[in-house]
Amino acid sequence: MHSSAPVFRRAASADIAQMSRIRLSVHENRLRDPARVTQQMYEDFLERDGRGWVAQIDGVTVAFSYANRLDGSIWALFVDPEHEGMGLAKHLLELATAWLFELGFAQVTLSTGAGTRAEAFYVRQGWTRQASPADEVAFTLDRGGVDGFPVNATQHPR
After folding, report:
1. Is the whole model's pTM more than 0.85, yes or no?
2. Stretch 120-137: mean pLDDT
3. Of the residues 26, 30, 115, 152, which has the maximum number of CB atoms within 10 A of its CB?
4. How far apart are CA 75 and CA 69, in angstroms?
5. Whole-angstrom Cα distance, residue 139 to residue 83?
6. Mean pLDDT score, 127-135
7. Which pLDDT score, from 0 to 100, does residue 39 have?
8. For 126, left (φ over 0), alpha (ψ -120 to 50), or beta?
9. What DSSP string runs through 57-89?
10. Is 60 exceeded by the pLDDT of residue 19?
11. In the chain, which ranges are continuous DSSP H helix?
């Protein structure tokens, strides 16, 4: 049992080592080549190409998300396997998606492995499946399509 409630905040460079640890610890949607996601990619998505958020429990990063400001997509959403089922992914996804809608995107996209728990998670969150290769599933979420997301880019979520 964890001694404190999760804290959600913007990701910083100091969080990258823990985000990378989490990314490499997952059981599904594993990287075939861990060198493919570089330190520089994490850095770029902190401000230049996007924005990131972390969930921490007792000061330890246990989940993270990244939104891509260049194409309106979710670049990453991962939870440490020991902290799954706590609602961390849902909250991080809401932060990332709301930010992209605030930037003016009418639709947010993402992809995940086919037949994974992540696929079922996005369906439960109201995302729409799109045609995609057999080993991957693409999803979209339209602004205003889910309660709590702004209908126009000047509104803020709850």
Report:
1. no
2. 86
3. 26
4. 10
5. 24
6. 81
7. 66
8. left
9. ETTEEEEEEEEETTTTEEEEEEE-GGGTTSSHH
10. yes
11. 16-25, 39-44, 88-102, 117-124
